[in-house]
Amino acid sequence: MGMLVIAIGIGFFGSIIVFFIAEEMSLKDSDFSDIKDAFTKELSLDDSLSKYGTIKYMAMYVIGVFIIGFLISTQILIPNGFGLGYSMAYVFLPSLIGSLIILLVKWRFQPLLKLISSFMFGAGYIGASAFSVAATNLFLA
Q1: Of 11-15, 83-87, 129-133, which range is least confident?
Q2: Rounded mean pLDDT, 97-114
Q3: 71-92: buried (b, 16+ CB within 10 Å) or exposed (e) per residue?
Q4: Read out DSSP for the chain?
Q5: d(Cα 101, Cα 17) in Å, to the nearest integer?
Q6: What sign does the dihedral 82-87-90-96 (CA atoms) show?
Q7: 54-72 and 2-27 helices cross at what angle (nearest 10)?
């Protein structure tokens, strides 16, 4: 059980670090008054994607989480004989904890932005880590 907690901790801290790096990189050239334009003006999708680079940085986040999940699966989950329940705990618990922490950070100042970030973290983490755990169990176990 201690190894599962270590796997969950590595998954959580690794993914939250990758997420914050990707989020800060996507927002480095943006002005927060521009985000207001997304709700008040009709913007083209090409302009918003090229300005914020959200798709590129979200893909970097998903690839980073996939690599972390692959390493945890091959080094901790499979060698210790953890079953599906333990693997699902690794997939879902860091996602829930990370989404809650992101939602609580700066909720008072940027509620909509943090809500979107929280959903992006959770969805990206669940998708990437579930795929990596499933793929490694399918091919290595």
Answers
A1: 83-87
A2: 78
A3: bbbeebbbeeebeeebbeebbb
A4: -HHHHHHHHHHHHHHHHHHHHHHHHHHTT--HHHHHHHHHS---HHHHHHHH-HHHHHHHHHHHHHHHHHHHIIIIITTTT--HHHHHHHHHHHHHHHHHHHHHTTTTT-HHHHHHHHHHHHHHHHHHHHHHHHHHHHHH-
A5: 13
A6: negative
A7: 160
